[in-house]
Write a structure and sequence with these properties.
Helix 3 packs across helix 4. By secondary structure, the protein is an alpha/beta fold. The protein is built from 12 helices and 11 strands.
């Protein structure tokens, strides 16, 4: 299709330096991602290229402008995310969704505001906001745990829940942690470190430490959930593919009044002994269609780490699809 030009104008000149980036590097990134030409002319941008691709650039730039108007930052990561969302929306022939949602769907925490960086993350964030029990499935790097912790911190700091409870199955130690050195906190920390990392990314360090001391934030291996009722809490079970069906049922039935629960995992990385069914797989099948339960399946296209991570995930999925993973 012959190249064409598309003009886009912005009303608030104060936002344009952040939109364009230093030396127009944000516009250059869009050019690199989409294979088009993007030139700034004062408060206007001229996009030249294939009409359908130019439209993706227009949607991405418009969503970034809305983000800036809402007081949020724009860096190269947000540029990549906006283009990814706009491309996904175009493929689904619903570009209006990207324009309306990408600048408005935000998890607000004390240290950062978190927006979706892919269409899958957009669906997942809506699920986290709307559902009492949410399952987030997908490969590494798709933001399953990070977004769940962000929502938990947002609800805690806004007073919608009284505490956050974070849990993981300690599969590597067979749930028997006694032989490890140190007190219980020292024993379980290696298994829960990714959850701590997310907390420190969203709350000042002194707040994380204080809330851990007071019990407002609690971290515990899955085995320690038995017999409890978790009310007025945001509860996250991470790496749930390594829970057994019995453990999963035990965990899910801990849900109390005014509580939210999120269960995350990657069904392609099950570390359970051979022949043991994953409790996550079993739960997703068992609870399909149950009111109040929602499942979001993320994919390699939702990976927001290094671009190579997405290619690695795709390569492994291709091998597994061929059934020759043991070669």
């Amino acid at each position: 299709m012959a190249p064409s030009s598309l003009a886009l104008e912005f009303d608030d000149n104060r936002l344009l330096p952040a939109l364009y980036g230093d030396f127009d590097r944000h516009l250059a990134r869009i050019e690199q991602l989409l294979g088009i030409t993007v030139a700034s002319r004062g408060n206007s941008i001229i996009i030249t290229g294939d009409p359908s691709v130019a439209e993706i650039a227009r949607v991405a730039l418009q969503s970034l402008y809305v983000r800036l108007a809402d007081g949020l930052d724009v860096a190269l990561a947000e540029i990549d995310a906006a283009v990814r969302l706009a491309r996904s929306a175009a493929e689904e022939e619903s570009s209006g969704v990207a324009e309306l949602d990408s600048g408005k769907l935000v998890i607000r925490t004390p240290k950062r505001h978190i927006s979706p960086r892919s269409a899958g993350q957009q669906r997942y964030m809506r699920t986290l906001m709307d559902s009492e029990l949410a399952f987030g499935l997908g490969p590494a790097g798709t933001g399953k745990t990070y977004l769940a912790v962000g929502m938990a911190v947002s609800m805690l700091t806004s007073g919608r829940v009284d505490r956050i409870i974070l849990s993981r199955p300690a599969v590597e130690a067979g749930e028997r942690l006694g032989f490890l050195p140190g007190d219980m906190r020292d024993k379980i920390d290696p298994y829960l470190r990714p959850l701590y990392d997310a907390l420190y990314d969203m709350l000042p360090a002194e707040q994380v430490d204080r809330r851990l001391e007071t019990g407002e934030i609690e971290v515990a291996p899955l085995a320690f959930m038995r017999g409890r009722t978790l009310a007025n809490a945001y509860v996250i079970l991470d790496e749930a593919q390594n829970a057994t069906p019995v453990q999963m049922k035990m965990f899910l039935t801990r849900l109390g009044e005014n509580a939210r629960m999120v269960v995350t995992g990657d069904l392609s990385q099950i570390d359970l002994p051979r022949g043991v069914t994953s409790g996550l797989r079993h739960a997703v099948r068992t609870l399909e269609g149950v009111q109040g339960v929602a499942t979001t399946q993320l994919s390699a296209g939702d990976v927001v780490r290094h671009e190579l991570v997405s290619r690695i995930v795709n390569a492994y999925e291709a091998v597994e699809a061929r059934g020759d993973e043991n070669e």
